[in-house]
Structure formats: C-alpha cells, structure tokens
Design a protein that fits this description.
The complex is a heterodimer of chains A (113) and B (114). With 113 residues, chain A is an all-beta fold. Helix content of chain A is 0%, strand content 53%. In chain A, the strands form three sheets. In chain A, strands 2, 5, 6, 10, 11 and 12 form a six-stranded mixed β-sheet that branches. A four-stranded antiparallel β-sheet of chain A has the order 3-9-8-7, with no helix packed on it. Chain A is globular and about 45 Å long. Chain B is mainly beta. In chain B, 0% of the residues lie in helices and 49% in strands. Chain B has no helices and eleven strands. In chain B, the strands form two sheets. In chain B, strands 2, 4, 5, 6, 9, 10 and 11 form a seven-stranded mixed β-sheet that branches. In chain B, a hairpin with a 5-residue loop joins strand 4 and strand 5. The radius of gyration of chain B is 13 Å and the shape is globular. The chains are: A mainly beta (113), B mainly beta (114). Chains A and B meet through strand 6 and strand 11 of A and strand 4, strand 5, strand 9 and strand 10 of B.
Chain lengths: 113, 114
C-alpha cells in the first residue's frame, strides 16, 4: 500500500540551529511526495513537493526537502530554525486510483529561543 | 482572493443530531475532499469527489454523507450514526487528475458533541 511514515512525534531544536523532520515512504512506482505545515486550529498549508527531477526541492519559508530513492526518504530541512517555525508538519503521498493524499501522523516541531 | 471557505469554525452538537459542515471553493478545482483529524492520527479521508454529481467513500465514511451538486460546494453531514464525531474536519480541493498538484485546505471546522 502507498504510505508515508514520520518516525518522530516531536522534534525540538534551538533557534538558529538547523532542523530536520523525517519522512519515509512506501510507494510502488514513482512517488509524488509533499510536505504541509499546520498551525494551531488552522488548515494545512502546502510547503513543497517532489514530482521528478532534482532531488533537492526548495519550498516556502526557507524550507527544503531531499528526496532519497535508495533510502526511500523525503526529509524536510531548514538551515536555520525560527521560533515561528514551531508547528505540526505532515508528510504526504499521492495514492492510487483515488488520487487522494495519504498523510503521515505528523511531527510536532518546537523551536526554542 | 481564491480559496476554500469552511463554516462554521466551531460547532457543538447534542447526541442524536445531524449537523452539516459547509465547504465552498472559488479555485475552479474539480476535486474536493473531506478529511478528519484526530490528535496523533494524522488526517483520514472521509469522502472525495472528482467531479460534480459524483463522490466516493474514503477510509472512514461510515456515519457521514456528502453531496456535490455544484462544482464550488461539497457539504459534509455528520449523522447520528457516527459514534465518535468530535474531531477537527478539514475540506480540501485540487485539480482532478493532477497527480502533481497539491491540496488546498480550508481553515477547518471543529465539531464537539456534548
């Protein structure tokens, strides 16, 4: 089955340090992978996606993600974290005939001043 | 501005009552989706629609119903048959058939059963 997994429920980093939020995928065929961010009591906002091409994808708010086919991973990264980056982050993959999006359980990122 | 509007933002329901959550989009997207969000479980698909007058069940459709009479609108009814309806509900849209396309989400509706 097409799915993504986020192995960490919580990630804590200090402001100014680099951050990584992990995602692994299980997909037959070419994966279409996405990252979203959610602030409290809000809808999800799209950050970036990998469809094809360059393995390093750049997105909104200084975020980027690296697609690694051999490790079946799509980790979200940012060189220097901000307190305002604190939120819930979701990795997702497009699935099958339904063309819907299947989401990971989410990772709560906390950036401390 | 183009986007998705969900209403109401907060809703309280007594047990045994049906409630309808509104979702309207002006993005001219063909596909629309309803997700349910519970703490620690990510998002689960309730119903989706790829085109007007057609919709399909998702993973957790029991106790819910939808309609798609207009391209812009995809209301969700939470019926009394839904055993645990307290949750955060998210509506989304995208271009149908667009595997590369991301979902656009509304701001969500939080339903609490009293």
């Amino acid at each position: 089955a097409q799915s993504v997994a986020q192995p960490e429920d919580q990630v804590n980093v200090a402001e100014g340090n680099p951050l990584t939020v992990k995602c692994t995928y299980s997909v037959s065929g070419n994966p279409y992978l996405f990252w979203y961010v959610q602030y409290p009591n809000r809808g999800l906002q799209f950050l970036l996606k990998y469809i094809t091409g360059d393995n390093l994808v750049k997105g909104s708010y200084g975020f980027e993600a690296e697609f690694n086919k051999s490790q079946t991973s799509f980790h979200l990264k940012k060189p220097s974290a901000l307190v305002s980056d604190s939120a819930l982050y979701f990795c997702a993959v497009r699935v099958g005939v339904r063309n819907d999006m299947r989401f990971g359980a989410g990772t709560r990122l906390t950036v401390k001043p | 501005d183009g986007g998705i509007t969900q209403s109401p933002k907060y809703l309280f329901r007594k047990e045994g009552q049906n409630v309808t959550l509104s979702c309207e989009q002006n993005l001219n997207h063909d596909a629309m989706y309803w997700y349910r969000q519970d703490p620690g479980q990510g998002l689960r698909l309730i119903y989706y629609s790829q085109i007007v007058n057609d919709f399909q069940k998702g993973d957790i459709a029991e106790g819910y119903s939808v309609s798609r009479e207009k391209k812009e609108s995809f209301p969700l009814t939470v019926t009394s048959a839904q055993k645990n309806p307290t949750a955060f509900y998210l509506c989304a849209s995208s271009n149908a058939g667009g595997w590369a396309g991301e979902l656009f989400f509304g701001e969500g509706s939080r339903l609490t059963v009293l």
